[in-house]
Amino acid sequence: DQQVKQNSPSLSVQEGRISILNCDYTNSMFDYFLWYKKYPAEGPTFLISISSIKDKNEDGRFTVFLNKSAKHLSLHIVPSQPGDSAVYFCAATTGGGNKLTFGTGTQLKVEL
Amino acid sequence: EAGVAQSPRYKIIEKRQSVAFWCNPISGHATLYWYQQILGQGPKLLIQFQNNGVVDDSQLPKDRFSAERLKGVDSTLKIQPAKLEDSAVYLCASSLGGGYSNQPQHFGDGTRLSIL
């Protein structure tokens, strides 16, 4: 049972444009959501997170939106840069410190 | 701040052999996690420690996998005997834990295990 889903395996965007990565979840007990970026041969790097009490969190070029009623979150990257090319994982957890449930990832390619 | 350290980076063994992985978490992080990431999938939790106690090992195949964190800092994960389906990247992560809620987990670079 895939509780966290990233339905787009890949996304290609031009440099300077907006990248939008999507994530859906089924478990209504999830209350903390995170995005990780992963380069080849490296571990996932924490990017940004959002608590279920918020609907938006922003950090520089990265913004995460949470729609609890739709059980959907998205990551916006503006403007996209070639260095953003990586696999992005959405993850969710029930309460602080508990295990993360990951999606299968979206490969983002930012082209010149 | 030093990140999560893992070794070795790569390991190749034959099926039925044993293997061990080591992890040193970020200093001061009470919670340590081991994840297994199979190619094309997201990481899946194997075991979670709070200091030197096990919090969650429900997904750990206990007939062949074992893990310990004796002094509440470093941790080792062992597989004995290995099966072909154990080929994966084994990731260690740590977080502040304790009374800190909603703290992100920080990952090491992982150990890529190949079973022949």
What do you see in this structure?
The complex is a heterodimer of chains A (112) and B (116). Chain A has 112 residues and is an all-beta fold. In chain A, 0% of the residues lie in helices and 54% in strands. Chain A contains no helices and eleven strands. The interface between A and B is medium-sized, with 24 and 30 residues.
Measure the end-to-end span of chain A: 38 Å
- Poorly predicted spans of chain A: none
Overall average pLDDT of chain A: 95
According to DSSP, the number of beta strands of chain A is 11
> Order of SSEs of chain A, N→C?
EEEEEEEEEEE
Evaluate the radius of gyration of chain A. 13 Å
Q: How would the global form of chain A be characterised?
A: globular
Shape of chain B: globular
Q: Tell me the helix content of chain B.
A: under 10%
Compute the average pLDDT of chain B: 94
Which secondary-structure class do the elements of chain A indicate? Answer: mainly beta
Helix share bin of chain A: under 10%
Topology, number of strands of chain B? 11
**How would a crystallographer describe the biggest sheet of chain A?**
6 strands, mixed
Low-confidence stretches of chain B: none
Give short descriptive properties of this protein.
A: 112 residues, mainly beta, six-stranded mixed beta sheet, B: 116 residues, seven-stranded mixed beta sheet, four-stranded antiparallel beta sheet, globular
Q: How do the strands and helices of this protein lay out in sequence?
A:
The complex is a heterodimer of chains A (112) and B (116).
Chain A: E1 4-5, E2 10-14, E3 19-25, E4 32-38, E5 45-51, E6 56-59, E7 62-67, E8 72-77, E9 86-93, E10 101-102, E11 106-111
Chain B: E1 5-7, E2 10-13, E3 19-24, E4 31-37, E5 44-50, E6 53-56, E7 65-68, E8 75-79, E9 88-95, E10 106-107, E11 111-115
Parallel strand pairs in B: 2-11
Antiparallel strand pairs in B: 1-3, 3-8, 4-5, 4-9, 5-6, 7-8, 9-10, 9-11
